Amino acid sequence: MSRIAVIGAGAWGTALAMVLGRKATNRVKLWANELEVVESIAVRRSNDHFLPGFVLPSTIEATGDLQAALNRAEIVVSVMPSQHCRSLFERMAPLLTAETTIVSCTKGLEDGRLLRMTEVIAEVLKKQNLNARVGALSGPSFAKEVARGDPTAVTAASADRTVAVAIQSAFNDSRFRVYTNDDVIGVELGGALKNIIAIAAGVCDGLGLGHNSVAALITRGLAEIARLTLACGGRLDTMSGLAGLGDLVLTCTGDLSRNRTVGVELGKGRRLSDIISGMHGAVAEGVMTTKAAVGLARSKNVEMPITEQMFAILENGKSPQEAISELMARATKAEL
Questions:
Q1: 126 shares a domain with 13
Q2: Residues in contact with 189: Cβ distance below 8 Å, sequence separation at least 6, in sequence order
Q3: What is the mean pLDDT of residues 253-270?
Q4: Same domain, yes or no, for 116 and 12?
Q5: Which of these is catalytic: 194, 268, 300, 318?
Q6: Catalytic site includes residue 107
Q7: Of the residues 139, 166, 182, which one is the last residue of a structural domain?
Q8: Quick one: pLDDT band at residue 281, thresholds 50, 70, 90?
Q9: What average pLDDT score do residues 255-270 get?
Q10: DSSP letter at 288?
């Protein structure tokens, strides 16, 4: 019997708990910060707030008690918003052991320190003298479709192959295929940075632009993601895989993408603050990741024109039309 704690009961955390809970050999504790989520799952076996319409397996127990969730957990799945990762792991660290396998499923960067989520986790645990067994899970995977049981493929990344295989073994089943990868940098940056490009793709749709514009945006967006990934020590081949191109295409084109939806509303002329307030607690990680991505790119002297323009739109209120004009007016150069 495997004891697994999923920390974060938003749509993505709940969907992952459902994948894990499909195995009769797993016992899953799903920690929620919101009392109404715990009550909804306990009474109706459904997360009516973040992922309505799906019945959770009986192997899942929801709790608002962090200590209860982590008690004797062999695997901890981290699915909180990126801005809460450090503070939550500071609370969690005394409850973890050196044998605990931690799976980061948050697709974002830490603002200020410009760290990937596995770096944040390792840094916090090091202060507790824990040499963390940390990996990342990423790939093209809308929560609603994962919960529905649609065939999905993702990748589990860790520099330690035993950690990657442990994650693969925990999650893999007939509807959720998990590959392994040792390029943690590429997998995490692909998952985080694609959200920025997805907001830009939504802007194109909100402005009424056609498929040409979105295809160009995805292609050039992937190019700048790859540049930063290489500068940070990741690999180019990861960018052609599930955590790179796969996740980028999904998030830029799928109607279930929260980041793309934010962009659509921006393209229609709505203010960012109004868009966020209307999301009812759901998180579009790209909004928070853009500033960190710009900072990371500047620290590595990497050119990321699309990301820079999205930063100007999100942070400074620049008009999308002006941003597109400036991108199209940049000096001509060779593609490769």
A1: yes
A2: 116, 225, 228, 229, 232, 234
A3: 95
A4: yes
A5: 194
A6: no
A7: 182
A8: confident
A9: 95
A10: H
Using the Cα atoms of residue 262, residue 299, residue 297 and residue 334 in order, give the sign of their dihedral.
positive
206 and 308 belong to one structural domain? yes
pLDDT digits (tens, 9 = 90+) for 97-115: 999 999 999 999 999 999 9
- Provide the edge-to-edge strand list for the sheet that holds 101-104: 60-63, 26-31, 2-7, 75-78, 101-104, 133-138, 152-157, 176-181
| Sequence-distant (≥ 6) Cβ neighbours of residue 150 within 8 angstroms | 175
132 has a pLDDT exceeding 90: no
Specify if 333 maps to a domain: no
Specify the CATH number for the domain of residue 200. 1.10.1040.10
Q: Which domain holds residue 172?
A: 2-182
- The token pair at 97 is 């052991």
- The 10s digit of each residue's pLDDT in 25-47 is 999 999 999 999 999 999 999 99
Q: Residue 317: inside a domain, yes or no?
A: yes
- Whether the pLDDT of residue 215 is over 90: the answer is yes
Q: Are residues 313 and 201 in the same domain?
A: yes
Whether residues 72 and 168 fall in one domain: yes
**Distance in Å from the first CA to the final CA of the chain:** 51
Same domain, 156 and 210: no
**DSSP assigned state of 332:** P
Average pLDDT on 134-152 reads 98
Q: Which two tokens stand for residue 173?
A: 């089943």
Which residues contact residue 242 at a Cβ distance below 8 angstroms, ignoring those fewer than 6 apart? 138, 139, 140, 153, 154, 155, 179
